[in-house]
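Record pair follows.
FIRST:
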Amino acid sequence: MPRTLDPARVGDLPSMNVAHELYAGLTRFTPDGPKPDLASSWSVTQGGRVWIFRLRKNLRWSDDRPITADDFRRSWLRALRLGSQAPLAGPDLGILRGARSYLGGNGGDIDVEAVDDRTLRVTLQHPVPWFDELAAYPIAAPVPANGRAFSGPFRVAVRHPGRLVLERNFNYWNARAVKPRRLVLTTSTQGADAVLPHGLSPPGVPWIDTAGRTPTGSIELPTLTTGLLWFVTRGTPLADPKARLYAAWALTHLDLGSPASLIPPEMPGAAYVNSHRPVQLESTPIPLQLNVSWAREDLGASRVAERLQQSTAELRASQIRLRFRPVATRRALLALAGPPARPGVDIVLLGWSFKVLDAYNVLDLFPCGSAFNIARWCDPRYDALMRKAVRTRDDQARWRIERQLVEKLHDAAPAIPVSNGSDYFSLRPGVRGFAWSPVGLYELMGMTRS
C-alpha cells in the first residue's frame, strides 16, 4: 500500500505508482520515451537551458476547476519548500535555476514562469537533455491549491487502512483511454489478478535489492539498477592506484554471480557506452588486507558477499585478505560509508537506481563533488567531460562522450559493477497486458499510465 498520496512526498515505489494514477504531469513515461500528457507540446531553446511547455486546452481537475500553468509553478515551489519531506524534490527539481539555493534555505526566486494560463516557461541551472523525463515524475505533477482533487486518469473513491479504491476520473484529458472503471488495491494477495514487483527503491537513490530470489511460477524482470563494489580511495590501502587496479583485477576474475555491466543492458546506448576491456594487471601482486561492508537487508549485496567469502582461498592466493563488516540497514551503511567513509571501511557494496534513460545518471556518481561518491575519487578531467556530456542533446554524440567517461572509470577503478538488479511479478491465468516500464516503474498496459 502507498505510504502517501501526496505526489510531492512520495519516497517509495507503491506511493509513486499510485501517484502516477492520481496526478498527471506535463509528460508521461512510455516504452518509447516521454510523451505529452497535460502538456500538448514543448520546445527547447538557449542550448537546452529554457523549456517552454504548452498545456492542452480545457484541462480540468476532477472537481471541475480548470488546471493552469500556475498550478505547476505553485506545486513545484511547494515541493521545494517541503525540503526533506519531499525526498525527490532535490534530485528531480533541483535542476531548476534558483532551486538549489531555495532548497538550502537561502530563499530567492525559482525561474519558473506561468506566462499565461496555458504556457509554462522553465529555466534550468544548466542544460539537461532529459528534463522531459524529470517532468514525468509525480514530484513534478500539479496538486490542487484547495480541497482534494486529481488530474490523472483516476481519483480516490475509498481510502481505508489496507484498502484503497480508485475510480476513473472522467475529467482526465484522455479519459477514453482509461479502460477499467475501478482499481482496488489491498494488502492481501488472495484473489489478486496480479502481484506486482515490490522490492526496489524509487529511481534516483542509492539502491539495495530486497526482492530476494525469483519465486517459483513468477516472471523475472530486469531493472535499471547497478550493484557496485566501491573502493574507498582516501585513507585506505586503495588510495594507491596500483593497489586499486590490482584489487579490481583480482575481484573481476572471481565468479560473483551473473555477469554485470556498469550501464544496465536495457539502458539505451548501453552496448556502445559500456567498456568491454578486461582489467589489465600492470603490476606485481600487492598484499592487501581490506574491510568489506554492506547492508544485510540488501539481499543482492549479501549474495555477492557470500561469494566473496567462498572465494577466500582464491583471494589469498592473490595476497588479498578480506574482512567482512556487514551492518543491518541501508541507512546504517550510508552512515558508515559516507562520503566520507569512516576509518576502517575500504570496500562498500551499494548500488544505484537510474532515474533517467541515459548512462549519465550513474556516471554522475563519480565527479569530485558528488554527494554519492563513496570512493571519494577525483579527476578534474572526468568532471570536464561530464559538463560536456550533460550539454550534448544528440544521443549518439553524448554516448561517445560517455564511453570516454566509462573508460576513465575503467582505468582508475573507483568502483566495479557486480550486479544488475531484477525483480519479479506473477499473474493469474488469463490476465494479459502486464509490461515493464523502462525507468523501474510498473505499468498495466491500457490500465495505468506510468
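SECOND:
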Amino acid sequence: MAVVDVLKVLPVVTAVIWYLIAINQVRRDRMRTATEAFFLVSCFFTGTYALSDFYFFNAGSRETAANAALTGISSLTLTVVFFFLFTQVYLTKMRRGYLLALTPGILLLPMVWSVMLQGLVSAESFYLPQYRLIPFTIWLAFVVVYALVGIRNLWKLHTIVRSQSATLAKRSGGIFYSFLITFFLGFATNGLIGTLPSPAIPPPFSTLLMIPGIVALFTLAPIRRDRISDVVRRFRARRYNLRQAYFVFNDGTLIASTVRATGPQLDKDLFSATLDVIQNFMRTSFPFLKGTSLRTIEHGDYRILIERGRFCYLTVVLAGEENDFLRRQMRDSLLEFESLNEQALQRWRGVPSDAVDSERILGLLFEPGELFSP
C-alpha cells in the first residue's frame, strides 16, 4: 500500500481515538464541571476534525470534498477554543469572562463557510483545498494564538507537577511535548505541502493528532492510583479552607456531618433545615429554574457548595476559592455514599445510624492528597 493510501485512511484512526476519549468521559460521568465539559467538547471536535479530513481525502466528488473541508476547518476552530478554555480553567478556576474566548471562534465560522474556500485542486487520487489569502491568514493567526496559549498552560501544569512528583512529571511532560511536537510538525508539514505546486501526499496534521490522543488515553487509563489531578488539587487546595461538610437527605433531614473549624459552631440540624428552605424558596419563587438546583451560596469570603444526588445532597462550607477539583471530589463522594447506602436511603426514616461509612467519606474531603479519580 502506498504512503498516500495510508495517509488517506489514518485520520479515521485519529477520530476513533478522540471519540473513545469523549465516550469514556461521558461513561464515567466526567462532564459536570466546566473543566470536564471543555475537555469533552474539545475531544469531540478533534475527532470530528479528523473524521472530516478522512472524508475529504476520500471524497468522490468536489461538492463532498468542499463540505468536508469546511466542516474540518470549523471543527478545528472550535477544537482550539475549547482546548484553550480547558487548559485555562484547569489551572485556575472558571470565570465568566473566559467565555468571551468563544466570541472570535464563533465570529470566524460564517467567514469560513462564505469566503475562505476558493477552490479545490485535484492531486492524483485526492483533493486539496485552496483558500483565499486574507481570510485564511486571519483564521490561521487565530488558531496559532489559541493553540500556543493552551500549550503554554500545559507547560505551567508540567512545572507544577514536576515540583511535587518526579514520576507524574513524566506523564505531564509527555502531554506537553506531544501537543508541542504535534503543533509544530502539523504547522510545518501542512504549511509546506500547501506551498508545493503538485503535492504528493495529503496534509498529515489530522493524522499527527493521533499522538496526543494516545497520550491522553494512557493518562486517563485507570492503571495506577497516582494522578496528575492529585497534584493539581493539592496545589489548588491552598486557596481554600474547608470548614464543614454535610450529607443531607432530600427532605432536609441531616444524615451526617464533619466539622473542622474552631470558634462558634453552627447548629447542624438548623443549618440543614435552613438550607432546604432556601432551596425550596428558589424553586417556588423562580419557576423557570424548574429542573435545576442551587449549587452555590456566597457571602463575603465564605461559600456553601452543594452537589445533589438521587436521594440526598452533599454540602460543604469553605473559606476561600472553590475549584473544579473540589467539585469533582464532592460528586464522587456523593455517588460513593449513595451507592453504599442505597437501600437505607430508599426507605429513609431519619435515623443517621442507618447510613454507613459517612464519616470516612466526609473525612476524605478534608484531605487534599486524596482524590477518587482523574
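COMMENT: The chain has two domains: 3-224, 235-364.
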